[in-house]
Design goal:
53 residues; 2 helices; elongated
Length: 53
């Protein structure tokens, strides 16, 4: 039971750290363009110019 003295604050700290990371990603615009990512997957920009015909 003595280990709970260490585990509970660690769990609370990790939870707050995850919440802060999520709020930071919202503020920095990570979820602004949800439609663009699925269309960028389908583009063949990585092919050389002679093979894009």
């Amino acid at each position: 039971m003595d280990v709970l003295i260490y585990l509970i604050p660690i769990a609370i700290f990790l939870g707050l750290l995850g919440l802060i990371a999520f709020l930071w990603s919202l503020k920095s615009g990570q979820y602004d363009d949800l439609e663009g990512a699925k269309w960028r997957i389908l583009e063949d920009d990585d092919l050389p110019e002679d093979r894009q015909k």
